[in-house]
Amino acid sequence: MALTTRANRTLGVLAVTIAGASVMACGTQHMSQTAAAAPAKAAPTATATPSPAAPSAPAVPHSLAAHSPAAKAPAPTGGTPRTTAPAKPTHHRAAAPAHRAHPSHPKHTAPATPPAAHRTTAGTPAHAPAAGRVDQSIQHGAEGGGKSVALTFDDGPDPTWTPKVLQVLAAHHAKATFCEIGPNAAAHPDLVKRISAAGHRLCNHSVHHDEAQSGKSAAYNRHEIVDAQQEISRAAGNGDRLWYYRAPGGDFSPAIRAIAAGHGMRPLGWTVDSEDWRRPGVDSILKNVNTELKPGGIILMHDGGGDRSQTVQALETLLDRLDAAGYTYTFPGR
């Protein structure tokens, strides 16, 4: 009897122990399954502190209402603009209040390779313009006073016509300003050096001669102005800063004028359009100049952009007449 009772007790204890172990195992499995099923807690998100907004550039006053462009939609930005051949000739725009618009020669194209990075050229020759604030208004008058004119030639340098223009100028001891296309200058650095060595002034006339430049983005305008400036300066080889910037077709805007002036170049217009780019004949070129010529004027002619044989012939006669009339030759005002 005692043995039976003891055995029953032993069996009871064993059963309780097994049941307890079973419950513990079940609880552990449930906790593991619950932990696996629970979603991971998201890490706290860092909140970026916004940078203070850069101050907007002040509005640039436009001194001549005749040049105030209508609001234009900006063109897409990004990278160096693709060089394409123009479908048709474009138009010069009025760069002087009394000047009429007229069609121009086809646009110039530059190599499709990306422009070189901007670099600062070393050294400043004695004839370079002094550093400092440059007027953003478009210049329409010659520097100095008296009976003088400023001769300007656009779209070169050209290996055929620029040397001929330089020969005529030298024969009359006349100085002029050459408004050059950046890639043309890069292709003919010998001509750029020759122009500078003869005492003439250099002017920036953009990279692509885009006469719709004012409707393009800020990045595009900076490329057209600053990259051309670097190309022409490198071609000159003496670290010369360019004196002026003439927008193709006179297509200036406040933004374009601000970029040019910010890089030391006075926006340059004209008051006398010879219309030599039309190749209307030597007599017509001379008549156009005579109609608009006044002391202190700026004469627009071309040494590049096409056949300039009529320009060279007209220039010889024009300088003979100016010499006989007592005119002297100077540069546009700064």
Q: Nutshell version of this structure?
A:
The protein has 334 residues and is of the alpha/beta class. The protein is built from eight helices and ten strands.
Please outline the helices and strands.
Blueprint: H1 2-37, E1 91-92, E2 102-103, E3 148-156, H2 161-171, E4 176-180, H3 182-187, H4 189-197, E5 201-204, H5 218-236, E6 244-245, H6 254-262, E7 266-267, E8 272-273, H7 282-292, E9 298-302, H8 309-324, E10 328-330
Verbal overview:
This protein is of the alpha/beta class and 334 residues long. It is built from 8 helices and 10 strands. The protein has helices spanning 2-37, 161-171, 182-187, 189-197, 218-236, 254-262, 282-292, 309-324; strands spanning 91-92, 102-103, 148-156, 176-180, 201-204, 244-245, 266-267, 272-273, 298-302, 328-330. Strands 3, 4, 5, 6, 7, 8, 9 and 10 form an 8-stranded parallel sheet that branches. Strands 1-2 form a two-stranded antiparallel sheet. α5 links the parallel β5 (201-204) and β6. α7 (282-292) packs across α8 (309-324). It is globular, with a radius of gyration of 37 Å. It starts with a helix and ends with a strand. The model is unreliable at 1-91 and 93-131 (pLDDT under 50).
